[in-house]
Amino acid sequence: MLTIEKLNVDLASNRILRDVSAQFDDARTIGIVGRNGAGKTTLLRSIMGLVKARSGSIRFDDRELIDLPGHVRAELNFGYAPEDRVIFPTMSVEQNLRLPCEVQGQSAQEITERLQTVLKVVPQIEPMLARSGSALSGGQGKMVALGRAIMVGTRVLMLDEPFQGLAPKLSQEYALALGRLKELQPDLCVVITESNVKLLGSIPDQIWTIERGSLTLNT
Ligand SMILES: Nc1ncnc2c1ncn2[C@@H]1O[C@H](COP(=O)(O)OP(=O)(O)OP(=O)(O)O)[C@@H](O)[C@H]1O
Ligand SMILES: [Mg+2]
């Protein structure tokens, strides 16, 4: 369980997240909806430890994360697919997928097993494995970024605007992949941001709205 309390984050001396409090339970799929600049990416980056909080608390299973550096948080098995994907162009798709697990120090066998699971969830990746990370379309890059986040995201999976710019058919495939993932890992907590709530369809169990850095649960 991820518990956020009175989280305040400043960027360039501007308050970006304001007293954000939320509880994201295991086995839930949570939508975070807010317009451009509302603070969606900043919230996910704060949970990942990529931006420093000014004050507040982020706890995961009663462990306080707020002062834990990003590289230590890697052990927590949070997967993160940033909105700009960041697939490394000089590596193959397979190397891109293996990388976060290698950073965690997992064995080659563990990584291969995890990769098999990811390919069950996102079979579209299989024919792309040997391809260069620079040779992907926008939509293919989104599928690979999803796969890479699932490689390490065994407890919490955070997806930043995954449906933005995806063609309807690919959106449908993406949603089906998330459904397969939930079947394989029912306890996983999935957090998905979007600016357009319609793109989330019936995927989330719970929707929060973020507006100028304030987060509220929709009822
Ligand atoms: N590095 C930064 N320095 C200063 N301000 C920033 C920085 N990054 C983001 N901001 C500001 O913080 C606010 C929230 O940005 P954020 O990227 O979290 O929003 P978002 O909801 O993800 O928006 P989008 O839908 O466009 O992705 C915006 O006003 C943005 O201009
Ligand atoms: Mg964003």
From TrEMBL:
<dbReference type="InterPro" id="IPR052156">
    <property type="entry name" value="BCAA_Transport_ATP-bd_LivF"/>
</dbReference>
<dbReference type="GO" id="GO:0015658">
    <property type="term" value="F:branched-chain amino acid transmembrane transporter activity"/>
</dbReference>
<keyword id="KW-0547">Nucleotide-binding</keyword>
<dbReference type="InterPro" id="IPR003593">
    <property type="entry name" value="AAA+_ATPase"/>
</dbReference>
<dbReference type="GO" id="GO:0005524">
    <property type="term" value="F:ATP binding"/>
</dbReference>
<keyword id="KW-1003">Cell membrane</keyword>
<comment type="similarity">
    <text>Belongs to the ABC transporter superfamily.</text>
</comment>
<protein>
    <submittedName>
        <fullName>ABC transporter ATP-binding protein</fullName>
    </submittedName>
</protein>
<keyword id="KW-0813">Transport</keyword>
<keyword id="KW-0067">ATP-binding</keyword>
<dbReference type="Pfam" id="PF00005">
    <property type="entry name" value="ABC_tran"/>
</dbReference>
<keyword id="KW-0029">Amino-acid transport</keyword>
<feature type="domain" description="ABC transporter">
    <location>
        <begin position="2"/>
        <end position="219"/>
    </location>
</feature>
<dbReference type="GO" id="GO:0016887">
    <property type="term" value="F:ATP hydrolysis activity"/>
</dbReference>
<keyword id="KW-0472">Membrane</keyword>
<dbReference type="GO" id="GO:0015807">
    <property type="term" value="P:L-amino acid transport"/>
</dbReference>
<dbReference type="InterPro" id="IPR027417">
    <property type="entry name" value="P-loop_NTPase"/>
</dbReference>
<dbReference type="InterPro" id="IPR003439">
    <property type="entry name" value="ABC_transporter-like_ATP-bd"/>
</dbReference>
